[in-house]
Amino acid sequence: MIHKEGKTIVIPTAVIKRLPKYHRHLGKLLKKGVEKISSREFGEIVGVSAPQLRQDLNHFGNFGQQGYGYNVEKLYNALAKVMGIEKKSNMVLVGVGNLGQALISATDFKRRGFNLLTAFDINPRLVGMTINGIKVRDIINLDQYVKDNDINIGIIAVPEESAQDVANQLVSAGVKGIWNFAPVDLKVPKEISVENEHLTEGLLRLSFKIKGEM
Amino acid sequence: MIHKEGKTIVIPTAVIKRLPKYHRHLGKLLKKGVEKISSREFGEIVGVSAPQLRQDLNHFGNFGQQGYGYNVEKLYNALAKVMGIEKKSNMVLVGVGNLGQALISATDFKRRGFNLLTAFDINPRLVGMTINGIKVRDIINLDQYVKDNDINIGIIAVPEESAQDVANQLVSAGVKGIWNFAPVDLKVPKEISVENEHLTEGLLRLSFKIKGEM
DNA sequence: TAGATTGTTAATCGATTAACAATC
DNA sequence: TAGATTGTTAATCGATTAACAATC
Known about the structure:
By secondary structure, chain A is α/β, with parallel strands linked by helices. The first copy, chain A, is built from 9 helices and 12 strands.
């Protein structure tokens, strides 16, 4: 959903899915020092047709210029704004197992404007530890912490069995979105956004594609 | 691509994307002891309309029975076969950083029929170690190992800068598919399948959805 | 200005849903 | 048999591509 000239326009989900990729490649072009790029060239890089790229972008504004193309920096910043990155999001992580620890150490999110403030776990052996500058707290403090620290994203990296329970806690504490790594389809109120990273599903799709070739 | 009654049929990508989810929920139902299920009930569980579910399944065969529904176990096994799980896939992991270690410890894949045989890294401090029963080898041995051990999937969990190089090595060693966790769009020959887990893109989509609500 | 490339409308393609005859 | 539910065709909806006038 977006507001444009007073009207409320719904952005097609297919478009939303492609935006992060556009943003990532624009970042790379920027780093390389590329100043401008045409929809044809950029489409080739991101694997999308030129008209589709133009249509996608025009959902959010007219960022290009006829006869010239798109200014890389301007487009990069415009997309960042569209995706809400310019205003940093505070996050907490729940579940400090192997995957949780990997997420704590990931540098990619910070670069893109996401702040991981702290982590929670139920395991007393982990509680109190500091990993990569991130303190691990007891999960009984989750509710209070989320309320006190303007947290809007909760990351779930707990086992399957407890994922729904953790989601409930995050929601009632007031997060706006959940980034879920447990292989579960969470039930949440419809005003809460969920993005799933069901890794095994990717592996199964890969398997399907491989077998299809044989 | 699939062969049915002599004809070669292309399966819509939208269908392929949904199959792993179907399979996962069938597994849960099976565990719960559910014997049969109608397309209406199952569609509700997986978040898909009943006719769509029936259409999806009918790309691969007629698994249901009028007036009865679908036998859960039969459908579960049928989908496993469709996705090529019944014949186990051998995998190697490249990159034993935080994420790589998390992948080594993940139990989910093994359950679904994937064998991780070994891991490779360039870091001498890691080479020789054994993590969760998985030996870490020097990456110079990658080519030989893949050739000798009937490996068909390579997992890439190395930093962005070396991902393409690792992909090239995996391809020339003979893998059929790559499961890629580096935030890069790999260039590979078209007969090689790639499945990307670009985690940060999920987070950006989540951010977009959240800001859209506000 | 002429050439290039956008923004946007119309045409096509693919995916989803509706409807219902077939059949267990 | 009657009721339920599939498999499948036709209708609708959404997403992609083609085409071109607008314009830098």
